[in-house]
Amino acid sequence: MDRPDCDKPVFSERVIVDGTVTPVSLFSDGTLWCLSGGQRCLTLRKEVLGFVTDGPNIRIKTVIETRDCCFPGNRGKLVRNEIVFQSLSEESQRLWCQNLREYIDSLGRPKKLFIFLNPFGGKKTATNIFLDHVKPLLEDAEIQITVQETKYQLHAKEVARTLDVSQYDGIVCVSGDGILVEVVNGILEREDWETAIKTPLGVIPAGTGNGMAKSLLDSVGNPCTPAHAVLSIIQGHKRPLDVATIRQGETTFFSVLMLAWGLVADIDIESEKYRWMGSARIDFYALTRIFRLRHYNGCVSFVPAPGFEGFGEPTSYPGKFTSKVDNKCDPSEVEANKLQKCCYQGTDINLENLNWRVINGPFISIWLHNVPWGGENTMAAPDAKVVLRWLPGLDYYQGLPKITVVVNDVRVK
Ligand SMILES: Nc1ncnc2c1ncn2[C@@H]1O[C@H](COP(=O)(O)OP(=O)(O)OP(=O)(O)O)[C@@H](O)[C@H]1O
């Protein structure tokens, strides 16, 4: 990187680095230049997590990517590091702290996070991942955390339903995709879902599949590691994500990752008994099921995306749900129905007048994706964008398997 010679530094002072007095300059683009031992540069936005003072020393907490010596094409590991410089006076230290603080604060990074930790996800490594990667990096970045271990199935959903989200800049799941989906469902069941869903959600890969973490990190060219996920969260990277509405009988729930029926769903559910194998349980059970394929009778009704109008046969809207659900809370509702009526009710788009088509089974597998990766090693839908404006939501009727693809417009940050 070339030093912006034409640019005047925002702040420049002589400090002691490695025992030598040397000028260090902070430029408006957030680069910190030091002339000791040749020119050295730090990019605050990308490499600096935070800083602390210790007597006359300013300790700058950084994270750097090491080189992979064996495979130079591969991305290296993220490693925490510290750069120490000593100011020459109290006033100089005060000004350094003020300028560094102002720049870091201007980056819009989160300051307070609520963390769900599922110690039972994947190979039960979430606690170690939290202690080895999440906690140290968040501490360096001076982010306050409240940690909630999940104690049972649907615990995260329960907490998300009542959590005072205004107290936090984000909710992070150190888990697999299951906990993230519970959190989305808990939030969308709240009366204040419209505000609550604006709380940024994050996921650190610590489960079996980790499809969401892989899709989000891969879309910006990062490897799917806990450290890269934490760094993205610290740096405040956000992107909108669609939510699919699924109706099964009288039950409504929401999905952000994928929906499976047939082979993939069976592998996911029935392989639970091999959880002790970690992520290998999926591959192992998939082989077992592929050798003994089942057939599923039913039909899929859908609204084709542009370019896919030739698939299936024309049909009319097959759902029993009428158009335009009312997502607003009606104060006249009796208390007993209040929660159900006031939570997010699904798309408010008129479903009846869309260009419906149908494909009749039998099927082996139906797998609908919001994001490209179903798991860390499964790129099931390469063309699925992490940001989709239109996402298939589903109506799935138990008993008579009939999937209706509808269009949804809720977006989660
Ligand atoms: N303390 C607990 N004991 C047992 N099950 C739990 C506990 N806490 C959460 N769960 C359940 O564990 C399930 C799996 O969680 P999670 O998504 O973290 O991991 P995974 O299923 O291994 O990964 P993936 O969803 O990526 O395949 C969730 O359905 C959740 O309800």
From TrEMBL:
It is found in: Vacuole membrane. One of its GO terms (biological process) is sphingosine biosynthetic process. The keyword Metal-binding does not apply. One of its GO terms (molecular function) is ATP binding. It is a peripheral membrane protein. Keywords: ATP-binding, Kinase, Membrane, Nucleotide-binding, Transferase. Residues 108-250 form the DAGKc domain. Its main location: membrane. GO terms for cellular component: plant-type vacuole membrane. Its EC number is 2.7.1.91. SUPFAM superfamilies: NAD kinase/diacylglycerol kinase-like (SSF111331). InterPro entries: ATP-NAD_kinase_N, Diacylglycerol_kinase_cat_dom, Lipid_Phosphate_FormReg, NAD/diacylglycerol_kinase_sf. It is an enzyme of class 2 (transferase). PROSITE patterns: DAGK (PS50146). Gene3D superfamilies: 2.60.200.40, Probable inorganic polyphosphate/atp-NAD kinase, domain 1. This is sphingosine kinase. It comes from Senna tora.
